[in-house]
Amino acid sequence: MEQRELTAPCLTRFDRVAFGAAAGLLAIVFAYLLAYGLLRTSVFDPADPAGEHVLYVWDNVAVNLAMLLGWLVLFRLALHFQRRIRLGWLTGAALGVTFALGVAWVLVLRAVPVNDPGILYYTAAELTRGDPSELWRHEVYLRTNPFQAGYLQYSELLQRIFGRHSYVPQGLLNTAFLTAAYGALMDLTWRSLHDRRTQVALTLLLVLCVQPVCYTTFLYGNLPGLCLSLWALDCLLRWLTGGRRRWIVPALTLMALAVVLKPNYLIFALAAALVTALYALGSRRLGALLVCAGLLAAPMAADRLARLALEKRTGFPLGAGAPQTTWLAMGMQEGPLAPGWYNRYSLTLMERAELDPDTALVLNRQDIAQRLSEFAADPAYALSFYHRKMVSQWAETTFEALLVNRVMPSESPFPALVNSLLSGGVSRALTLYMEGYTLTLYLGFAAGAGLLALRLFRCKAQAWPCLYAPLALMVAVLGGFLYHLLFEAKSQYLMIYLPMMAPLGAWGLAWRRDGVKAPPAP
Question: Which of 285, 357, 452, 522 has its Cα between 20 and 30 A from that of 69?
């Protein structure tokens, strides 16, 4: 290990206990999800192929165990021959395969956006013609969700570049973002752990993760935001390990853009800010607290600028939008899809309030208080509600990767193979593949989180350069888990966390009794 790592600042006792507790909690949660997933699976009602009504079905335990064993054999074989593998070639091949799969998916499906992506896409299309009337037609949606201003203008920019009907070019750009996101994870893991076995396992976990590939046709901010936030973390790690301040500006810029394109990445920004703050306090580099403040301020400022820019150009008053607690209230309600899933509550609340945020806040608080009183009166029901909500998301192992494509029309009729891929025999095989992959990832992640917790509790000397990125990713996954347990739920929202789980999952799968030094001690 390099000399700078030998003298690098180490985590304090408080840091080790706090992060160790978080890792232990994640280990328990995903071990439970693994056990639950072997027995039961959450699926969408086949009687409503275009809907998201969740059913909880018993699964074939023997088949699931066989799939899990097969996946473990695959990883063990790869790790057995890992010394013969040239990491550079493996990385290039994996990124090339991911890009090729994404390109093929986009070109074959040629999907046309609908629902939220459709509203934003066609509103942006009218803006390219200088017509803001579409904003007023979707006034309730946009004034409920003003945070969509950033992605709306991003879509407008792409349509000015590629044309009004640029579904395919934008899908190909999504493919490039996904490939670059995988590259960021590989770079982060190698810079942090510098372990061949973990790197080989990580590369396999990423290239075999097909759920995000299916989202390349989904013209939304998920994949661009994933890429930008991960490269922001990569820049932060370069700053931390090299001490060069020039990396701070691109880190803050990329993180701000990620949140502007998809507000859910504020969870990632908060995770990076928390880890950076503890690093600053523990290492006595108090100047790093400014970086922490920037990680919080830059996304908020960028989001505000995006809203102001849209309002100034179009004259459309976005307003403050629905209160953030609106999505908390939605996450507490039974609904037609599953507990806590999207049920149009945010839109109906703003309609009841006649688009006034202050009135909406009063009504929202009343709804939350009523639901809390119901939970307090029946704690067993409350526990059942949140359990069903959790497994409706994490045990739905396709993460809506096929469903979001099924509901989108195409520029041209699908050939028979594509129809089979989306809703026929090939679809069932692909769904089974995704289930086996997800169970394997959960096993590796639970093992990796448990091993990390043990190491943090048992070893006093833990260098920040080796742990900064793994801890930030771990905290982001924990934040995403808790947020979607409490706030609005959908399994598609969790797709972005699968790649984030891969580094720790790879360490868990690559672990051996003689001791893989990852995360390494200084």
Answer: 452
| Distance from C-alpha of 513 to C-alpha of 502, rounded to nearest angstrom | 21
Return the axis-axis angle of helices 266-283 and 464-486, rounded to nearest 10°: 140
User: What's the average model confidence in pLDDT over 474-486?
Assistant: 97
Count the Cβ atoms, other than its own, within 10 Å of residue 7. Answer: 10
Q: Nearest-5° angle of CA 230, CA 18, CA 514?
A: 75
List, for residues 70-99, the tens digit of each pLDDT value: 999 999 999 988 888 889 999 999 999 999
Q: Is a pLDDT exceeding 60 seen at residue 442?
A: yes
Quote the tokens at residue 261: 């394109």
137 burial type by CB count under 10 A (0-12 exposed, 13-18 middle, 19+ buried)? middle
Do 201 and 189 contact (CB within 8 A), yes or no?
no
The structure's pTM equals 0.94
Asked whether the beta carbons of 445 and 437 are under 8 A apart, the reply is: no
Do 8 and 522 meet the contact criterion of CB atoms below 8 Å apart?
Answer: yes
Question: Can you say whether the dihedral through the CA atoms of 326, 328, 331, 332 is positive or negative?
Answer: negative
Q: Residue 341 pLDDT > 70, yes or no?
A: yes
3-state secondary structure 407-452: CCCECCCCCHHHHHHHHCHHHHHHHHHHHHHHHHHHHHHHHHHHHH
- For tokens 């984030």, name the residue: 500
And the tokens for 232? 């922001």
Task: Check: CB of residue 1 under 8 Å from CB of residue 193.
Answer: no
Cβ atoms of residues 442 and 37 within 8 Å:
yes
**pLDDT over 90 percentage in the chain:** 82
